[in-house]
Design a protein that fits this description.
heterodimer; A: 7-stranded mixed β-sheet; 0% helix; 56% strand; B: 113 residues; mainly beta; 5-stranded mixed β-sheet; 4-stranded antiparallel β-sheet
Chain lengths: 115, 113
């Protein structure tokens, strides 16, 4: 099973709402990632978790709050977002960081619209 | 990570080979060449990677020049489902920073019937 699942597929939220994006993998991967992709742009890394601990934060605003409850799950909590945060949010997983040549497996993404 | 340069778009006839070039003239000795693709409205998909030898798998072949300054991804018999943005990424093989996939603008490959 090389699948990364993400829910929901689509999300519309107001600027005062609180919502969460969910990601799940069952490949035994110990590294998980959040990327953001604006329309017609390449994906950009936001966060990296390694063994359920936040390893990398690419200077992401605090209105985005990641969480890794266990080795299979990754959440992204959203609060007080701005319309410019509308994007496709991609989750990925891979073998442990530092492992030689580990490829990242991506989920289908959550398309977020902030109104 | 070294930067890559790819043509913004290419066309290919269905059933023909698609050859996608990538320049990475500042690549370091410990950096691999990775290829991913992203079909519209889907997440990126890993295709293949290599260091200096040519590589082949069930999806594609990767040809890396001897000086490693450029490479070509070959889809031997392109189908309509291969229409996607193809990203060439240079990345260190291991160590603390090898988590990083830095996507460039990629090449939009359109396979025509």
């Amino acid at each position: 099973d090389t699948e990364v699942t993400q829910t929901p597929k689509h999300l519309v939220m107001g600027m005062t709402n609180k919502k969460s994006l969910k990601c799940e993998q069952h490949m035994g991967h110990r590294a998980m990632y959040w990327y953001k992709q604006k329309a017609k742009k390449p994906p950009e890394l936001m966060f990296v978790y390694s063994y359920e601990k936040l390893s990398i934060n690419e200077s992401v605003p605090s209105r985005f709050s990641p969480e890794c409850p266990n080795s299979s799950l990754l959440n992204l909590h959203l609060h007080a977002l701005q319309p410019e945060d509308s994007a496709l949010y991609l989750c990925a997983s891979s073998q442990a960081l530092g492992t030689l040549n580990h490829e990242q497996y991506f989920g289908p993404g959550t398309r977020l619209t902030v109104t | 990570d070294a930067k890559t340069t790819q043509p913004p778009s290419m066309d290919c006839a269905e059933g023909r080979a698609a050859n996608l070039p990538c320049n990475h003239s500042t690549i370091s000795g410990n950096e691999y060449v990775y290829w991913y693709r992203q079909i519209h409205s889907q997440g990126p998909q890993y295709i293949i990677h290599g260091l200096k030898n040519n590589e082949t798998n069930e999806m594609a072949s990767l040809i890396i020049t001897e000086d490693r300054k450029s490479s070509t991804l070959i889809l031997p018999h392109a189908t309509l489902r291969d229409t996607a943005v193809y990203y060439c990424i240079v990345r260190v093989a291991s160590g603390g920073s090898n988590y990083k996939l830095t996507f460039g603008k990629g090449t939009l490959l359109t396979v025509n019937p």
